[in-house]
Specification:
The chain is of the alpha/beta class and 429 residues long. The protein is 29% helix and 26% strand. A four-stranded mixed β-sheet has the order 2-15-17-16. It has a four-stranded mixed β-sheet with strand order 4-5-3-14, with helices on one face. Strands 6-7-9-8 form a four-stranded mixed β-sheet. Bound molecules: shikimate-3-phosphate. Residues 20, 92, 164-166, 169, 190-191, 311-312, 335 line the site of shikimate-3-phosphate.
């Protein structure tokens, strides 16, 4: 896929449903009694992996054109899968599902693609083992494939070394199968979609500071879930509109949960002209329409507690920083090394090869913005967020930028290139 300097982006767009919320709706819908209806579900490969895993465990799921219907069987209604559960490229499927599987009365094996088989699972194996769960890394390297022998579990208070919603959610889901109070404390608050949705389904979940608590054996009831647009997908259009002179975009129905909206705060600090219109809630999740206008940007410092609120947006934020005036510092972003790819290294390599002035830091980078970017050939490393971030970089660069392995956007945003092309005349070919 080739990208060239773009005409202004103008008009309206609705981005696909939130990936994190879509996964959770399938999981909780499967464990609830009765039918759960999900609208604006993200039909990306990751969420389809979650659906396929629950179908393998006997859950009837109807994938209608405008709605997903999950015929849940209650907390103890899953059946032993006849085949290996395949999470594909999805860390959320792997880690959250592992928490559920640890509490079942059967043994299962959970695996994924080459990237999943390299991502750290010790972060969930450790707490699940403390709860009495039996989770074995079959390659003995702390990664998938995981053999999970289900047990009744013991509640724990887990002090997590990482701020990770996947770890927190894994433990809270396992906590549904433990008698008593299961607690997770993380260094900084990560996205809280699990807590909000578990509560909506009827579980007793409380949050205080960075500690979330669940009481075991909840009775979950099927719900109507309306999934907000994914702010992580909206981020590419926000960046494109801010960077391409003359742009003005209205991005409709976007989730702006405070544990996810770090990108908006960062853009504001960079001098962006962004307005949040028509604020409302979908199933306890705050939503707004985002009006973005082209704005000259300045540098920003990103570190500490706000890293988890924008962890998936750091690749596109780095692209914005390379085009901004001044020196942007990103620190405390070690989690970027263990995403779908080593995003820290790849961002630095790709921006450097486009002519940006960057110094790697131990867990971050210093970006001296303002050098004009030049087009080049870049590999996505099969990482959807790298592909989308550098497509946008290509649209503000001189010359042509070729993205190799560009189709990996299917993971979270199958229509990304088409939507981008629709908003600008000469975007991609
Ligand atoms: C996710 C949590 C984040 C994020 C991932 C989705 C989730 O990971 O990077 O894309 O749905 O819980 P961590 O919370 O593990 O950093």
């Amino acid at each position: 896929m080739i990208f060239k300097k773009s005409a202004p982006l103008r008009g309206e767009i609705t981005v696909p449903g939130d990936k994190s919320i879509s996964h959770r709706a399938v999981m909780l819908g499967s464990l609830a009694k009765g039918t759960t209806s999900i609208t604006n579900f993200l039909n990306g490969a990751d969420c389809l992996s979650t659906i396929s895993c629950f179908k393998k465990m006997g859950i009837e799921i109807e994938q209608l054109p405008s709605e997903i219907l999950i015929h849940g069987k209650g907390l103890h209604g899953l059946q032993p899968p006849k085949a290996i559960l395949d999470a594909g490229n999805s860390g959320t499927t792997t880690r959250l599902l592992a928490g559920i599987l640890a509490g079942q009365s059967f043994t299962s094996t959970l695996t994924g693609d080459a990237s999943i088989k390299k991502r750290p699972m010790t972060r969930i194996i450790a707490p699940l083992s403390q709860m009495g769960g039996q989770v074995e890394s079959l390659s003995n390297n702390g990664c998938a494939p995981l053999k999970i022998t289900g047990h009744s579990l013991t509640p724990i208070h887990y002090i997590s070394p990482v701020s990770s919603a996947q770890v927190k959610s894994c433990i809270l889901l396992a906590g549904m199968y433990a008698d008593g109070f299961t607690k997770v404390t993380e260094p900084f608050l990560s996205r809280n979609h699990s807590e909000l949705m578990m509560r909506a389904f009827g579980a007793q979940v409380t949050s205080e500071g960075t500690t979330a608590t669940i009481i075991g054996n909840p009775v979950l009831e099927g719900q109507k879930v309306v999934v907000p647009g994914d702010i992580s997908s909206a981020a590419y259009f926000i960046a494109a509109a801010l960077l391409i002179p003359g742009s003005e975009l209205l991005i409709k129905d976007v989730g702006i949960n405070p544990t996810r909206n770090g990108i908006l705060k960062v853009c504001e600090e960079m001098g962006a002209d962004i307005q949040l219109l028509n604020k409302r809630e979908y199933c306890q999740e705050p939503v707004a329409d985002i009006l973005v206008k082209y704005s000259p940007l300045k540098s920003v410092i990103i570190e500490g507690s706000r890293i988890p609120t924008l962890i998936d947006e750091l690749p596109i934020i780095a692209v914005m920083a390379a085009c901004a005036q001044g020196t942007t510092i990103i620190r405390d972003a070690e989690e970027l090394k263990v995403k779908e790819s080593n995003r820290l290294d790849i961002i630095i390599q790709h921006l450097t090869s486009m002519g940006a002035d960057i110094t790697p830091l131990e867990n971050g980078m210093e970006i001296r913005g303002g050098n004009p970017l030049k087009g080049t050939t870049l590999d996505s490393h099969l990482d959807h967020r790298i592909a989308m971030s550098f497509a946008i970089a290509g649209m503000v660069s001189n010359g042509a930028t070729e993205i190799l392995n560009a189709s990996c956007v299917d993971i979270s945003y199958p229509e990304f290139y088409g939507d981008l092309a629709r908003l600008s005349d000469s975007t991609c070919c």
